[in-house]
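ENTRY TYPE: protein
CONTENTS: sequence, structure tokens:
***
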Amino acid sequence: MRVINEDFRQLYLSDIVIEVVNLSRATYREASELKKQLDDLIKNNYKKIIVDINQCEFIDSTFLGVLVLSLKSSAKIGGDIRLVKPDEVVKALMEKAGTLNVFNMYDNLEEAIKSFEIRGEHNYYLGEGSPILA
């Protein structure tokens, strides 16, 4: 485990990296730090990334944009970024922004981790088919 700062924490589980966002309000002020963290992971060829935003009660458009751009970058190397349980307010914002269906989202971390055991993962940006159970 490597601690980034009090707002973000990275956990490593085999070939999966979990980026835990310890913020109730994720805004443009923290977006650049998240972008740097995710860009570094993608640059280092981590293809299975989970961003745990279950503590976020609010995410602004800049922070959401970082998640979308990072998903796009991850797709270019054959990876995926999955989200853990955004708050209902966050889900509503994502729906309004048209990004709700862009991400694979899970109710808890365990489900997100297990989702990477599925072969033929669906990736919105690559336009690949639906998941096939292993």
Notes: Strands lie at 2-3, 8-13, 16-21, 25-26, 48-52, 58-59, 80-84, 104-106. The first strand starts at residue 2 and ends at 3. The two ends are 28 Å apart (CA to CA).
